Automatic annotation (TrEMBL):
Localisation per UniProt entry: Cytoplasm
Reaction catalysis annotation: apo-[ACP] + CoA = holo-[ACP] + adenosine 3',5'-bisphosphate + H(+)
Name of the protein: Holo-[acyl-carrier-protein] synthase
Leading EC class: transferase
Role played: Transfers the 4'-phosphopantetheine moiety from coenzyme A to a Ser of acyl-carrier-protein.
Binding residue positions for Mg(2+): 8, 50
């Protein structure tokens, strides 16, 4: 059963300007493995993390640095969660999280669906 949906859109040029103005944001928003990526890819990951927070229904107990977007061998993006963020997902009864990302025309977008194995009906 779907328990949450989130979507986010990021203007890549604006994101790059923000990072250049405030480089410490990289440490707050991204894991060490993500920080080495190009800003275009980081904008997509930022959108994914924001979409996840929306799908979870809020950011209580969720920390950006505990959310990492990691590609599967096929290239499909996936969330790797740790710390209290992983605990929040379990506490909210979420058993599966689906992520789709794209970037084109100067924008990065992400769509997240959070599912529960159990029906609340």
């Amino acid at each position: 059963m779907i328990v949450g949906i989130g979507v986010d859109l990021v203007d890549i040029a604006r994101f790059e300007q923000t990072i250049e103005r405030t480089p410490r944001l990289l440490e707050r928003l991204f894991s060490p493995a993500e920080r080495v990526l190009k800003h275009r890819s980081l904008a997509g990951r930022y959108a994914a993390k924001e979409a996840l927070i929306k799908a979870l229904g809020g950011s209580d107990g969720v920390y950006w640095s505990e959310i990492e977007v990691t590609p599967e061998e096929s290239g499909r993006p996936w969330f790797t969660l740790s710390g209290s963020t992983a605990d929040v997902v379990v506490e909210r009864g979420i058993s599966s999280i689906h992520l789709s990302m794209s970037h084109d025309g100067g924008f990065a977008t992400a769509y997240v669906i959070a599912e529960s194995a159990e029906s609340t009906a």
